[in-house]
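Pilot study result, target chain (261 residues):
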Amino acid sequence: MKAASHVQCGAVVYMQKYKMIIAYDGTDYFGWQQQKKLPTIARTLEKKFLSVFGKKISIMGVSRTDAGVHALGQVAQFCTDLQIAPEKMQQAWSNVLPPEIVIKKIESVKDNFHLHANVQEKTYHYNFFLDRPLPNVQRFGWYYQYPVDIEKLKNALQVFVGTHDFRSFCTGDEREDTVRTITDVSVQFIETFGCYQITVRGQKFLRYMVRRIVGACLEVASRDFLSVHCLQEALAQKNPQQTLPKAPAKGLVLHKVVYKT
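Predicted structure:
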C-alpha cells in the first residue's frame, strides 16, 4: 500500500512509508535528533541516504535518545519515492554507514502505521559496573565506584513500578503530562560483561526519566544513611529540582520497542 503521493512535473509520484530498526553506539554523537552542524544519528543516516540514492529523506525516531545514549532497537520511519526493494535499500545504505551505526531491518509499512501511537512497550537497559570494566565494554556502562547493596537497590527500584507522576524524575522543562506507567523493573548480573543490568519497561518515558531513577536508586543503595522512603518522598513532592543524582548517559540503551499488532 502506498503511503502518500505528490505531483511532480505533472505526474503523480507515490511516496512509500518505511519502518526501520537501528542499533548504534551513541558515544561520539550528540543524540538522535537533528542538530545544526553537530553529528547526530538521524543526521548521519539522512546524509548517507542522500549520498547513495541522490534523494533527501527526513527520518523520525520513536525515541529521541540523548547524547551518549545507545540503542539496540531504535525504531524509525521515513518516506521516499525511491523504487527499490527494502532489502537492497538496506544493503546499499549500510555499506556507507560508519561502523557504530547498523541498520538491522527495513520494511515497507502502510500509511496508517504510527511511530508513536502504536507503541505497546519500550524496554530500556541501564548497565553499571562495580569493578573497573574492560576496555571493550567500558563505553556502554557506568563505573560506579561505591559499594552497592543490590537487595536495597532492587527494593528502591520497585518504588517506581506502577502509575505515578514522574515530574521529580525528568528534566523539569516538560509542559506535557508527566504521569507515566512503569510495568516492570528488574536487576541482573551479566557475567559475560561483568556488569549489572537494570531493565525498565513501560509504554512511554520522559526525558532523563530512566537515568534519574537509576541515579537516585544507586545513591540510596550505596548510602547507609539514606532509606528507600526518601525516594517515595521525592516522587510524591513532584519537584524536578530534587537533588538526587542523575546517572550518566553512557549506561543507557534503548533495547527494544514492541508495537501493537
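One observation from the pilot: The mean pLDDT is 93. A full batch analysis is planned for the follow-on phase.
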